[in-house]
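Risk mitigation, structural track. In case the binding assays with magnesium ion fail to produce interpretable data, a predicted complex structure has been prepared as a fallback.
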Amino acid sequence: MAIRQLPETLINRIAAGEVVERPASVVKELVENAIDAGAGRIVVTTAGGGKDLIRIEDDGAGMDEADLRLSVERHATSKLSADDLDDIRTLGFRGEALASIGSVAELTISTRQAGAANGLRLAVRNGVKSHPVPAAMNRGTTVEVKNLFANVPARLKFLKSDRAEAGAVTDVVKRLAMANPGVHFVLTGSDRAESNWPAVTGEGALGARLAQVVGADFAENAVQLATVRHGIVVAGLAGLPTYTRANSLSQFYFVNGRSVRDKVLVGAVRAAYADYTFRDRFPVVALYISIDPAEVDVNVHPAKAELRFRDAGAVRGAVIRAIGEALAAAGFKASTTVGE
Ligand code: ADP
Ligand code: MG
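Fallback model:
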């Protein structure tokens, strides 16, 4: 049996499996790109649970023709400077999303930079890109993804119902909106009733965004977190011990502006409420950690949803303290001392 080099389009399709699991992962990648491009307003439209259509419109910086051509190539990114994986400040950095999406869906990108005479549109079909053609549009970028996984039947079969996939898209957009209160989000399309969360800025912006996205009753039944400990900033809202849910779906964790799943944070919240909440009840929390990027490794998971803290104990201690102190200040007194 002879070894042969796989064609580029097939390599991309195989790699796509790591980045693009379902419609929600496409939405996450594209909205993160819009945020990285400095968008002030992002419109997310889906149909057929995102399988038929995903469209992300932003009013960000846009791309010139050379960047547009490069954007759909694998490992092409404008974001990783001086090959420094220890200092990642943008949401993207692998340069893999657009190439991956283009190999498993019909991808069309329209983009226009400020001052450009016109916009440009590039299409990728079966992993092969077209020449950019002029397009009439305002400043920003619109990415359209149609017939996701039509050429990967095994992956298509694995997807859940349109309703469930649309729900996963909603969850992803909610988290991105919670992490970026200064960005106006619209979530629309035939899959759903429209959500419209105008930008909020200044003091109280975070609380206002959480009220928009999680609900006004959460904001009213929560204490504000604002502590710094060993250089670890803990902010956000922690629900009162009397305001709990039957599952952990309403616990939201962010580290340096990125929504994450992390056992250290989940464990710290559980410990912080151990004296207050009943078994099998979960407090509602939106926890925002800011920490020196060098203290976190975000490169452990292809979708970047997981991370590793260099000093997990310090993070755990900071979270337990922040919540414990805020609850105590609100009159909830722990029966035992909460702390490290
Ligand atoms: P990454 O985000 O990891 O760099 P992507 O494949 O998601 O990789 O995007 C490749 C490049 O395309 C980005 O680095 C950026 O320069 C450009 N790009 C993608 N989406 C947008 C957008 N919405 N607005 C402006 N530039 C974009
Ligand atoms: Mg990206």
